[in-house]
Design goal:
mainly alpha
Length: about 110
C-alpha cells in the first residue's frame, strides 16, 4: 500500500522550515487544528520515518519533534517541485500582476488569526 501525504502534512513541513524543531502545541497553533488531529499527523509522520519524538531533557512532559533525514529529503523535494510549478505559472504574469497577487495573499494570511 502506497502512503500519501495529506495537505496537513505539507503544512507541517512548512512549519518545520521555520522552526526545525517544534512540539504539539506549536503544530496546533500554526495549523489551526485540534490536538487530536495534530497527534494523528505526528503518529503518521513518525510511522513514515519523517520525524522522531524526543523528550525534553528538563521537562519530561514536553515532547519535541525533529525531522529525520528522510523527512528533510522529502521536504527539499516538495520545496523544489513547488518552486518549479510556481515559477512556471508566475513567469507568465507581469510584475504588477505578481505584486497584486502577493498583496492579496499577505492580506488573506494576516487575517487568518483575526
Amino acid at each position: 500500500m502506497r502512503k500519501r501525504l495529506h495537505s496537513l502534512n505539507l503544512s507541517y513541513f512548512n512549519l518545520y522550515s521555520k522552526a526545525k524543531k517544534c512540539n504539539l502545541k506549536d503544530i496546533v497553533n500554526e495549523l489551526g487544528t485540534t490536538t487530536g488531529a495534530a497527534s494523528l499527523l505526528i503518529d503518521k509522520m513518525t510511522k513514515l520515518d519523517y520525524v522522531v519524538r524526543e523528550r525534553d531533557t528538563t521537562d519530561r512532559r514536553l515532547i519535541w519533534l525533529t525531522f529525520l533525514e528522510k523527512g528533510e529529503n522529502l521536504y527539499n523535494q516538495i520545496t523544489k517541485k513547488r518552486n518549479e510549478v510556481l515559477e512556471h505559472y508566475f513567469s507568465k504574469w507581469t510584475e504588477e500582476e505578481t505584486q497584486t497577487f502577493m498583496n492579496l495573499l499577505n492580506k488573506a494570511f494576516s487575517e487568518k488569526g483575526e
